[in-house]
Amino acid sequence: MKKICSCLLLLILAACASKPQLYPNEKLKAVGKKAAKDDVERCMADAEEYLESGEGKKIAKGAGGGAAIGVAFGAITGAFSGNMGSGMVRGGAVGAGVGATGAALSPDQVKRNYVNHCLADQGYQVIGWD
């Protein structure tokens, strides 16, 4: 149990530390790294605010609802196969993916897309996330 909690904490911290990596285009060269970093932080703060909005919460509920449905189906199929616990875990994982797809995107994907768009509007080019 301790190992599982440690792994979850690391995943959460890794997700929180994720930042966009900018292509060194003319915009980045013109404003410099400090100003670009400030722009990234501002876009990320705006994205967090968006996720707290009604639309952002609706997207997050889609992923959670899919996970709950997946757990229920996993329990049913697990009961027939003789391994209900394993079925619930697999069903939850699949359900979360399906729920996120059904609701468009997961909160992390929405945040990244929001930040990418915000930065693109300012002339930056995001080439990836670390």
Question: Could you please describe the fold and organization of this structure?
Answer:
- By secondary structure, the protein is mostly helical.
- It has one domain.
- 80% of the residues lie in helices and 5% in strands.
- It has 5 helices and 2 strands; from the N terminus they run αβααααβ.
- It has helices spanning 2-17, 26-51, 54-81, 84-102, 107-121; strands spanning 20-22, 126-129.
- The protein has a two-stranded antiparallel sheet with strand order 1-2.
- α2 packs antiparallel against α5.
- The two termini are 28 Å apart.
- Residues 5-14 have low confidence and may be disordered.
Which value, in Å, is the CA radius of gyration? 19 Å
Order of helices and strands: HEHHHHE
Spans where pLDDT lies below 50 across 5 or more residues: 5-14
Shape: elongated
Q: How many strand units?
A: 2
**Main β-sheet description:** 2 strands, antiparallel
Number of helices: 5
Residue share in helices? over 70%
Proportion of beta-strand residues = 5-15%
How many domains make up the coordinates?
Answer: 1
Q: Gap between N and C termini, in Å? A: 28 Å
Instruction: Tell me the structural class.
Output: mainly alpha
Mean pLDDT: 75
Q: Please give the order of strands in the largest beta sheet.
A: 1-2
